[in-house]
Design a protein that fits this description.
The protein is α+β, with helices and mostly antiparallel strands and 75 residues long. Helices cover 27% and strands 37% of the residues. It has two helices and five strands, in the order βαββαββ. The chain has helices at 14-24, 41-49, and strands spanning 9-10, 28-32, 35-39, 54-61, 67-74. The chain has a five-stranded antiparallel sheet. The two termini are 15 Å apart.
């Protein structure tokens, strides 16, 4: 099992993670081990290089103008 130390801010929901990342401009909203969090891009790159699975969180505008949170899996 690979262990990598990362900086992360755990959030209560995926929506909170997206809002925190957008407002702070300091990291990416991700889902890691089923937990929504904000992680610096450099740490996301390290996780990807190590083959550790996670997903980026993104707001996606639907045709009717509403938004859905979607995940973009990595590894």
């Amino acid at each position: 099992m690979t262990t990598i130390d990362i900086q992360a801010i755990e959030c209560e929901s995926m929506s909170d993670a997206l809002q925190w990342a957008d407002a702070s401009g300091q990291g990416e909203a991700v889902l890691l081990d089923g937990k929504p969090m904000v992680v610096p891009q450099a740490d996301c790159d390290r996780l990807q290089a190590a083959g550790i699975g996670f997903a980026y969180l993104c707001n996606h505008e639907m045709p009717d103008g509403s938004y859905r949170i979607v995940t973009v899996p990595v590894n």
